[in-house]
């Protein structure tokens, strides 16, 4: 693009620091695996979610085929829970796997729990290998490398323990929860360090379960642990994008106070204009085109219209509000990218 003055990596990182950009970054901070991209590159889930070679091919297709200006691996969120001893099932071409069995089922399991070893456990070594393979490719075209790590409360309640048990322990034995939360901080920090060592420059710190709790609880069971983890990850030199799922309007102002984070990836349920008003300029914002109704089911025109609205409303990074749906048509993915090029100079941080 002739109008580009910054590289995609410079642009994305500047936006995360809330510094001027030439136009909005169009970055794949949420999962980018779609069936259309699988068909374009010949790497399919579940293999492309299990082995480094397929992960690299599919991640690269988001850049090469769709024009998204980053690469991100892997494409599901259960890496840590699986590496800790959990089991996944329902591996499909057009769907992410689900948790079948959790690593922690009893209070005794909490005592026994040790953070997984990224060089040894589950698919962690494959993710690290994929990042190492992506580094020279990404360097050639100056695009960022992003990888997800669960924030502590979300790791516990979505991937380590059945959510029902978590809620029960919080009521009957909160100390048990807090003991586990400390170990969950450590789990994320150890894994993030390995991802950063392998070459990831941005950690997508996934707070996807926050939307299930009230503000009071968020401040007790999620925010302090996320602050502890995010600060440590930032100290290692990485950018930290905190992700929210579902309607977190009641939390957003306080979410922006999580120490160490550069940015919040706002779920589509919260209006971008309201998000900006709630957060001010405490952190950068990313989002939040609707991944289902707009990107999977809508037309390219609707995608462009909603992307334009997000840009005008104050997002700093153009992307969906959550992971790209696997059945997103390629033309809709390309429409989002096109909207970023067409309207990106209207972004809050764009030089006038
Ligand atoms: Zn989400």
Automatic annotation (TrEMBL):
Pfam families according to UniProt: URO-D
Chain ranges of the Uroporphyrinogen decarboxylase (URO-D) domain: 7-342
GO molecular function, one term: methyltransferase activity
InterPro entries: Methanogen_methyltrans (IPR052024), Mtase_MtaA_CmuA (IPR006360), UROD/MetE-like_sf (IPR038071), Uroporphyrinogen_deCOase (IPR000257)
Annotated EC: 2.1.1.-
Keywords: Metal-binding, Methanogenesis, Methyltransferase, Transferase, Zinc
Gene3D superfamilies hit by this protein: 3.20.20.210
Required co-factors: Zn(2+)
Gene Ontology biological-process entries: methanogenesis; methylation; one-carbon metabolic process; porphyrin-containing compound biosynthetic process
NCBIfam families: mtaA_cmuA, PRK06252.1
Name of the protein in its database record: Methylcobamide:CoM methyltransferase
Source organism of the structure: Candidatus Syntropharchaeum butanivorans
């Amino acid at each position: 693009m002739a109008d580009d003055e910054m590289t995609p990596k410079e642009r994305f990182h500047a936006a995360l620091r809330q510094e001027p950009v030439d136009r909005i970054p169009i970055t794949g901070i949420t999962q980018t695996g779609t069936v259309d991209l699988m068909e374009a590159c010949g790497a399919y889930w579940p293999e492309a979610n299990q082995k480094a070679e397929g992960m690299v091919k599919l991640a690269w297709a988001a850049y090469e085929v769709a024009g998204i200006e980053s690469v991100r691996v892997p494409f599901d969120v259960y890496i840590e829970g699986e590496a800790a001893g959990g089991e996944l099932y329902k591996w499909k071409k057009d769907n992410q796997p689900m948790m079948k069995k959790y690593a922690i089922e009893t209070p005794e399991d909490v005592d026994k729990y040790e953070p997984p070893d990224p060089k040894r456990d589950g698919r962690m070594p494959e993710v690290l290998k994929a990042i190492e393979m992506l580094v020279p490719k990404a360097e050639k075209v100056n695009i960022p490398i992003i990888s997800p790590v669960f924030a502590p409360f979300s790791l516990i309640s979505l991937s380590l323990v059945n959510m029902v048990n978590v809620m029960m322990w919080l009521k009957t034995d909160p100390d048990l929860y807090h003991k586990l939360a400390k170990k969950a901080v450590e789990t994320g920090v150890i894994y993030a360090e390995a991802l950063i060592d392998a070459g990831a420059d941005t950690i997508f710190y996934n707070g996807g379960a926050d939307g299930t709790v009230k503000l009071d609880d968020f401040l007790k069971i999620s925010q302090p642990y996320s602050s502890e983890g995010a600060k440590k990850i930032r100290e290692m030199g990485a950018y930290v994008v905190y992700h929210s799922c579902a309607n977190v309007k009641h939390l957003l102002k306080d979410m922006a106070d999580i120490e160490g984070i550069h940015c919040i990836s706002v779920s589509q349920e919260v209006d971008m204009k309201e998000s900006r008003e709630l957060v001010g300029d405490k952190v950068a914002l990313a989002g939040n085109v609707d991944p289902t109704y707009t990107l999977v089911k809508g037309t390219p025109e609707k995608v462009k219209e909603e992307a334009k609205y997000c840009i005008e409303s104050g997002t700093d990074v153009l992307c969906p509000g959550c992971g790209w749906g696997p059945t997103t048509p390629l033309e809709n993915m390309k429409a989002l990218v096109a909207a970023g090029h067409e309207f990106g100079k209207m972004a809050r941080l764009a030089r006038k």
